[in-house]
Please model this.
Amino acid sequence: MHKLTYFFSNFIQQAYQAISAQQQAETEKLALYRAAIDAARLAEWEFHNPVLAMKEVVRGQYGSDSDQAQAIGLKKKSNRKRPSRKTWLQLQVNQLIGHNNERCRSFLRSNDFLDAFDKILMEQHI
Model:
């Protein structure tokens, strides 16, 4: 009985030492992995910041509407679409259409919509 207890005690100690060694290796590799992630992020920022600075230099030297700005991937200021203003009526109709259910669609096709539309026009004095 004494030999059996010694065997299990020795076996458990060896298994625990193996677990401890594997956990230590895991911790070391995890630290190396995290350090590699940090180094990669730092390298990305070290690349990104000069690119941003270069874009600002091109904008400053040639202007936002220049061909040089477009050549480095910026959108020309004149090519930007200005937002269009919508009237109150357009917003109301868009809101009705946006409900996307059959009741709203059938209402928009019916005479009730035309009556409601006339009423809105009368209220807005359009």
Summary: The mean pLDDT is 81. Helices lie at 2-62, 67-71, 88-98, 102-109, 111-124. The first helix runs from residue 2 to 62.
